[in-house]
Design goal:
Helix content is 75%, strand content 0%. The protein is mostly helical. The protein has a single domain, classed as Up-down Bundle (de novo design (two linked rop proteins)). The N and C termini lie far apart (87 Å).
């Protein structure tokens, strides 16, 4: 009888470990999927930016430095595609700032503001920025859930030995990026 009780407890512990491991794998895969969604939206933004810059070039000859900063920031973002999440977040945040600066400067050009191509591209980029913001929020929610799961008892006893490490949040590193864009005429 004692043997059956011991076997039952061992079987219960094995089932508990299997459940913990599968839950951690699911949470880790949610984080990876959320990062992939950010990646998709960033690729979309990277594809739209050259078109936006080309439309603006004809109107904004005097604002060459703004166009160059957007182009440089985009190129850095494209080149760092294999970097860490923290590195990519920093580069993408620089690109976001450059785009904000471009839109603020574009407000000074009435013909550019009325140009249908500019309006369409601006709408696409605004929609993409909203998607990126949503994807970042979803990613951070997934990271929070995953990190909480690996830190809670009893998973915290086994997570490290199973190779589950905390994930990094997607954060703004420059406090200036939290400030609204100032449009001056």
């Amino acid at each position: 009888m004692a043997l059956w009780i011991i076997l039952g407890v061992v079987a219960l512990l094995i089932l508990l470990l299997i459940g913990l491991y599968n839950g951690l794998v699911t949470a880790r895969n949610r984080v990876d999927n959320a990062w992939s969604q950010i990646d998709v939206q960033l690729k979309r933004r990277h594809d739209l930016i050259p078109n936006l810059v080309e439309v603006c070039k004809g109107y904004m000859k005097h604002e060459q430095n703004v166009l160059e900063s957007v182009t440089t920031a985009r190129q850095q973002a494209v080149n760092i595609s294999g970097g860490s999440i923290a590195e990519r977040a920093q580069v993408e945040n620089i690109l976001t700032g450059a785009l904000r600066q471009l839109f603020a400067v574009a407000e000074n050009y009435p013909d550019l503001k009325a140009n249908q191509n500019m309006l369409a591209l601006q709408e696409e980029l605004t929609a993409t920025e909203n998607r990126i913001a949503f994807a970042r929020q979803h990613y951070n929610d997934s990271v929070m859930g995953y990190n909480t799961q690996i830190q809670q008892f009893p998973a915290n006893l086994f997570a490290g030995s199973f190779g589950f490490q905390p994930k990094v949040f997607f954060e703004l590193t420059d406090p200036a990026q939290r400030e609204p864009v100032k449009v001056q005429f």
